[in-house]
Amino acid sequence: MDAIERLSKIFERFPGIGPRQAGRFVQYLLRSSPALRRELADAVRELGGSVKQCSECYRFSTAEGKLCGICANPSRDKSSLAVVASDADLLALERSGTYRGKYFVLGGTISLGSEKMSGLRLQQLLDAIDERDELAEVIIAFPANPEGDATADRVRDEIVRNTTPGKQIKVTSLGRGLSTGSELEYADPETLKNALDSRR
Amino acid sequence: MDAIERLSKIFERFPGIGPRQAGRFVQYLLRSSPALRRELADAVRELGGSVKQCSECYRFSTAEGKLCGICANPSRDKSSLAVVASDADLLALERSGTYRGKYFVLGGTISLGSEKMSGLRLQQLLDAIDERDELAEVIIAFPANPEGDATADRVRDEIVRNTTPGKQIKVTSLGRGLSTGSELEYADPETLKNALDSRR
Amino acid sequence: MDAIERLSKIFERFPGIGPRQAGRFVQYLLRSSPALRRELADAVRELGGSVKQCSECYRFSTAEGKLCGICANPSRDKSSLAVVASDADLLALERSGTYRGKYFVLGGTISLGSEKMSGLRLQQLLDAIDERDELAEVIIAFPANPEGDATADRVRDEIVRNTTPGKQIKVTSLGRGLSTGSELEYADPETLKNALDSRR
Amino acid sequence: MDAIERLSKIFERFPGIGPRQAGRFVQYLLRSSPALRRELADAVRELGGSVKQCSECYRFSTAEGKLCGICANPSRDKSSLAVVASDADLLALERSGTYRGKYFVLGGTISLGSEKMSGLRLQQLLDAIDERDELAEVIIAFPANPEGDATADRVRDEIVRNTTPGKQIKVTSLGRGLSTGSELEYADPETLKNALDSRR
């Protein structure tokens, strides 16, 4: 396997990239300047060096210390903790500009069928909840799909079972209803039911 | 203009149908049996005869009397009234199987720009609200888009202004949040804000 | 089944129309004026009366006599006959503005699996070829898909087998190659092979 | 700008990749093993070292000598030269399994508006045509779009103007017509015209 094929095979492992697009990436790099290729190789290499997982929320960041910028920010509200599946979901919530609490990245959702939690940071989540005295509410913020729902059920159960008796932790989930742009006519019955239940 | 073109032009006025598909409809009818064509012509003609608008909710139905099946049903909950834009939205809510109250079909939404309510049954809605003594809650159930929101604001204002003083009518709107299938990563900030606000 | 459902069921039989869009058509007609509904019913009814199949090319038309406008046109080139699957394909060729010969509508293509020619006007085609003395070329103009190709092979065989010995009829097929807009990178090998073979 | 953002910005420059997918690539690499990241960085770095442009057809390859595998292959037909826009188009023609001649990669197509040939290897093409004594046919194999057609016209003109008088070089273009899968009904008039003209 030559350098072209080897690089193409690596790009094929990237999320959403097939052989055709992987080939185009390689062609793009071949036509690019040696400087850009060097920049790319360096940036990839540097990822391992400068990026670490935040020791509190577990998202990846290049912050200097052990904590990421959000976790190190003293003005964030310590009483609420949003549990999200991925860094991307954390960033989406952050972009919405409403949430001022803390985050915890679980690392994925249960894959249906196996129902396994392996690879997810459930124990770390339970420990974090146990340790943080000011915590009053855990907001489960998983995608509104079967995997997200199954993970939410499981996480909720574990939190309830593991909470030190006497400690009052409210566990909530993101509200369901009509998303921006939804038309009733095309909405699924479940969404309409949720929209009716959460009317206000 | 011959019969083929004339029919094609009529089909072009159907919602979502362009010249090409209109032509295919005509070709389909040309290849069909005379019996099917007769059936279609009869069914179209009969629409005008047997279908009327329910005098209470204003949806189209073929019910015998002045009321449609839902409005004639004595077991429906008279304390709540869902205001919808169209028959299709009414049927979608009905299919969701949760709502047991009454309906009112406004007949559309405001078109932005004009902000006109012309063609919408606003006065009839206000009269209905005024006349129904058992009514306690009006649920505004419009699509979650700018037109739906503008119409909701307007309807809500008018209801508040027109309600007989002393009469207690709660005006609610369908809940917003994550629709079934929504992923946080791709959700718009407005939807995430709503999902956070309506968490439970 | 009431008039709304009955009409909806008929629309569902239209090509490419599902229950949802059929329902929208009915709603559109309900909201329309009685005049439009009458116009539609009349136009459908009239199709059977004023439209006939041309006795030569078999397409549907509202021409007065037995022949459609193209077949009645004395300036069309009698030496070539384009065999097409449908009226729509005939009209597409006519719109391209290049072809000045005659047409024959076969009425469809073989459905793979069955390989049956039933419903197709093969015998009428063979008779037409046999009867027309000035005919020199039959152009097979079917879609470039497996059904079209199977029909083309079959039609070609039958023409060769049935042609009166001594009569010289050339049978050609539409050229294959790159369609407008095709990029080599995404073209299938068959198309590229054809494009190479037919280079000029 | 930290390592995450820097790498994300580089991925955004990849063809067809927006900020969102660039971010996903970085997240994928963050979750991957250090070994995969090292492999990727090495493969990118190696591209510059082991890949060179073939001195005859100008495509990128990792062949040992100055020529790529195709150009070095003595059994390829020296009498025909296919001029393509890109490596990807060359590979597509090669996959079709019909062409046994030589290639020349022009390096792109004219961008309409500017009509400039800058960046394209036109002079190298003319020199190659001039030098190769056995060459009898140049096959212009550009995409069937306005840019490809404009480039083809220009290349054809230049070849004609620059050919040593007395030398006989045929210049052809890939055939146009129905691509595999095309339906007449949806084909553009230009394609149908080409399909009729190239019928056989």
Short account of what is shown:
Chain A has 200 residues and is α/β, with parallel strands linked by helices.
Task: Provide the succession of SSEs of chain A.
Answer: HHHEEHEHEHEHEH
Tell me the fraction of residues in β-strands of chain A, as a range.
Answer: 5-15%
Question: Rg of chain A, please?
Answer: 21 Å
Number of separate helices of chain A: 8
Mean pLDDT of chain A: 91
Amino-to-carboxy terminus distance of chain A: 62 Å
Apparent shape of chain A: globular
Oligomer: homotetramer
Give the spatial strand order of the biggest sheet of chain A. Answer: 4-3-5-6
Low-confidence runs of chain A (pLDDT<50, min 5 residues)? none
Helix-and-strand structural type of chain A: alpha/beta
The helix content of chain A is 40-55%
The greatest interface between two protein chains, and residues involved on each side, is:
A-B, 48 and 48 residues
Strand tally of chain A is 6
